[in-house]
Amino acid sequence: MPHQRYNAECVDTKVLTEHIHFRNGRVALNRLMKSPMSEKIYNWEDPHETKRGVPNAGLVNLYEKWGFGGFGIIFTGNLAIDPKHPYEAGQGIVSKENDSPVMRDWYAKMARAMKANHALAIAQLNHPGAWAFTEYTDGSGKKHIISDGADDILNAPMSVVKSELIDRVVYAAKLLSNCGFDGIEIASAFGNLFCQFLGNNNKRTDEYGGATLVTRTKFHIDMLNAIRREVPAAGGFLVGLKLNSADFQNNFTNDEVYRFCEILDEAGYDFVELTGGQMEQCVQEAQQRASTIARENYFLQFIETVAKALRKTVVYITGGWQTASGMVNAVKLNITQGVGFARAAANEPDLPRKLLSGVAHATLDNKFSPADYFTSKHAAHFQIKTMAGRSINDVVRPTDGLPDFTDEKEAKHFAEKAAEYMKFVAADGKPDTFAEVIKYTPIHS
Length: 445
Description:
Keywords: Flavoprotein, Oxidoreductase
Mean pLDDT: 90
Order of helices and strands: EEEHEEHEEEHHEHHEHHEHHHEHEHHHH
Protein name: NADH:flavin oxidoreductase/NADH oxidase N-terminal domain-containing protein
GO molecular function: FMN binding; oxidoreductase activity
CATH class: Alpha Beta
InterPro entries: Aldolase_TIM, NADH_flavin_oxidoreductase, OxRdtase_FMN_N
Structural class: alpha/beta
Radius of gyration: 21 Å
Domain NADH:flavin oxidoreductase/NADH oxidase N-terminal: 52-359
């Protein structure tokens, strides 16, 4: 039985094939982006700071498939900049503590795999702040201590010394540039440490705190300037931000969102990735142009405000894309310049090739409940690990070996196993402290 896709009309996708030009001269070959998505397959079996979070052959296998998938730009998942404060067990780490010729060689191999078909390779950097965990369990069930939990970042994250945080970002950016990456994205979303500088809960008494928009934004400007001193824009290295609309909903007025984006644009950020809503619904409502509807949909209001404020900074939107017609209309309505896929890219690493060639007009319709976030998350992790298991030279199609979750029986079977797995990781501690991916045997492969 063939994979099932969302119902969609056939449309001309020529607008999606257009190049995206960044202010520093770099060019993405089309408008489609493989968005940041947790891989959970970096080395975490060796708990030492010098070895933890280093890439491996599986990451190269994985990014080869996305590299040949037809994306214009490809992002890594979260890369921690501080080994003592990780966001998720199994994630990558880029820091002075684990820097070595071996680590750099693996990141260089990853970058080459991402750029195999001329996509731009972007690394996402993150610091979770108080969300960081202090111990984790490896794949064999052994627990490892990361820190004693007594430091300021965990207990009072907004008291962190700004030079320490900026220095780590700059170190990672320079290292990744030397490894062949085309840029970085700083994850300033979902309440992490970078995001906390922007919110009303920022009670710092120095130049980065207070009630004014200018002071709460200053950290992001100084961070960009510090990066540019070491990795100049003239060299073509991109620097962008990831933002989530929910972080702004109770912290910024609409006018403040507009002014904040103007500041980012003036400062020189190359791109912004937005997330936080279902894009198919937003595009339909934008087409109706009914003000009463627009006021009810905060995400639509947010992304339209951002799009108007950013003049030189490129906008990508990730989340909820299903149909080629929705993507095409969003670009034509000037809502976004680029379209980002996360879990759809785990289902189908060559999705852009199919969309741009007219072979497909929608993403795959997985039969998980839309409200069941964790089941689809673990499904993506399983798909990622499956793709990492073999080189692209050893498969006929990039999707070979991936389970078909558009089959109701397969999806139901996985959901049952995922429920058992979530009970297991919950008993172990926080869900993201287990450095392994769900084990699953597909009904059909």
